[in-house]
Fold this sequence. Notes:
The protein is an alpha/beta fold. 28% of the residues lie in helices and 24% in strands.
Amino acid sequence: MGFCPGCGSPEPLVESAASRTVAGPVPEAVPVSRLHEDPVERLETGIGELDRVLGGGIVPGSVVLVGGEPGVGKSTLLLQLSGAMAAAGRRVLVVTAEESAAQVGMRAARLGVDRDEVLLLAEDDVERALASAEAAKPDLVVIDSIQAVASPDVSSAPGSVSQVRETAARLVRFAKGRGIAVVIIGHVTKDGGLAGPKLLEHLVDVVMYLEGDADRGFRALRSLKNRFGATHVVALFDMRSDGLVEVEDPSAAFLSDWQSTVPGTVVFPAVEGRRSVLVEIQALVAPTRVSPPRRSVRGVEAARVHQLLAVIDRHARLPTFDHEVFVNVVGGWRLVEPACDLPVLLAVASSLLDVPLGSTAAWGEVGLAGEVRPVPFAARRREEATRLGVERIVAPGDGRTLRVGDVLALAGLTG
């Protein structure tokens, strides 16, 4: 306009930044040398395997996120957790936003959870749920689930990115401010990752993932993040009609039906945290006229299996370009460490040549140049295999690298 319509001045507008003062006293930074680590008080859950994954129990004021596929048993596990803590004299508030109170009551009756210390609230408003927690003053709050509760301050629908971010931040503030532990159930996407923004995993203190084989009933609980203990610790449960039951000897459970005289099967001592677990790796290689041949992998990274097929073709002269290849880890166990390369390769070669490996355990990382490298925790793997009565071990020694052809010869598959 060229002038101010209020006063008629022709002077131009000038931006002026408002000065900001810090409200209250200025916080004081403390030297690290003056800090000391106090022993962390933990609330034991009463479930030994769960306490081991958590690092000894739940820390008051912490936030734990439990994810998993639909129907894997997340709500069942946390309801059993609530009952076990109530049996120890702790008060637990279970907030269900996906089911009615009657539905949860039926599950509680089936699991034998019938104590007055377990309080149930069917509510999807996070503010009302936290107000109820303020009044009840529980030792633990269970939210089922983060995608079903919502904050009235956010206009989007429950489960949206903004709602998950706001409700998770509100729950974290409540836990830290009141010193009450909060356990949150989270959904997963079709790719298997936790649904919602990645900020959700950054906000919480512990991230656990419940997975398993629906056919056999085994459930593995893994810790992916833990600010109060070790990560990648695994607990094994067996899903039964009366809930999840701890499996004290996972190796014996996984190898209960192992048939070592069948081609294409080998034992792999997997190391999860401080525990070594023997799992059976199976492979089936069958000729086909279909091009390209099928590749089906379960429990191992598919890209790694394709790499091993190329290595065994190039360095052992065992081509599979005209064969279908199926690889499976029995029991629904998921392997992520490279030490499983050698047992997968041996199982594929055993099935391709139709030669049984017998009672054999193997471990080792296979490189693209055909070398088999040593992997950590060899002594722990050997001790577990010996305990279960495995007769032969095929693995590179400490500091010694083998070739694929040499390993196949050691396993009795080639001359």
